[in-house]
Amino acid sequence: MPADTALLVIDIQNDFCPGGALAVAEGDQIVSGINALMDEHSSVILTQDWHPAGHSSFASSHEGKGPYELTEMPYGPQVLWPDHCVIGSHGAAFHPDLRTDAAQMIVRKGFRPHIDSYSAFFENDRSTATGLHGYLQERGIRSLVLTGLATDFCVAYSALDAARLGYAVELHESLCRAIDLDGSLAAAKSQLRAAGVKIS
Ligand code: VGL
Ligand code: ZN
C-alpha cells in the first residue's frame, strides 16, 4: 500500500463481539483478516468506543426507555444502546486477538457524557472533532481503508466523514459486521455509495 494510505480499524472491542454487551453477530470472525491486512499497511490506526458509566447513549440513563429505542438529543435523534464499552472495563478492551501492537494511534471516542460518537472524526453533534483529521493531515495520509464494527454505525459514520473531508475511502465489507437495526445496513450502504466510498 502507498505510504499515504492508512488502515483504520473501528471498535474491535469485546462488547461488540459475541458474549459482549452490544454483540454484533460474527464480530469476532473478522479479527484474523484485519490482523493480516495490517501487514500491508505502513500506517495503522485503531478506534475504541470509550464511554463513562451513565453515558447519555445508554438506555439505562433514560427512564422508561429500553435499548434500541430512539430518543431526541440536543443534536438530533439518537439510538439508545445497552450499557457498553464503559471506560476501563473488560468490554471496552480490544478483542484479545487483535494485533494492537501494530497500531500507531488509538482514537478514543464517546467519552463526553452528553454526546455519543460513532465516527472516528466527529461526535454525533457532527461538529466536535476527535482530532483524527489533524493527525492524518500532519502525517500526509490521503487515503483510508476501513474495517471493523459495526458496518452500519461506527464504520459507516467514519467512512462518510472521511469522504466529506476529502479522503479517498475504501470499505472492506468482508472485514466488517453490522448491527442491522430496522434496515440500517441497507441505508448505510446507499449513503456510502452516494458519498463515493468504494465498497469492496
Ligand atoms: C457502535 C453503537 C454504539 C459501533 C458504538 O461501534 O458501531 N454502535 N456505540
Ligand atoms: Zn458506543
UniProtKB/TrEMBL annotation:
Q: Does the keyword Aminoacyl-tRNA synthetase apply?
A: no
Q: Which PANTHER family match?
A: LD05707P (PTHR11080:SF2), PYRAZINAMIDASE/NICOTINAMIDASE (PTHR11080)
Keyword field: Hydrolase, Metal-binding, Pyridine nucleotide biosynthesis
Q: What is this protein called?
A: Nicotinamidase
Provide the top EC class.
hydrolase
Question: Which pathway features in its UniProt record?
Answer: Cofactor biosynthesis; nicotinate biosynthesis; nicotinate from nicotinamide: step 1/1
> Which residue ranges traverse the bilayer?
none
- The EC code for this enzyme is 3.5.1.19
Pfam families recorded for this chain?
Isochorismatase
Q: Which family does it belong to?
A: Belongs to the isochorismatase family.
Q: Which residues form the Isochorismatase-like domain?
A: 5-197
Which Gene Ontology biological process is one annotated for this entry?
Answer: pyridine nucleotide biosynthetic process
Please verify whether the record's keywords include ATP-binding.
Answer: no
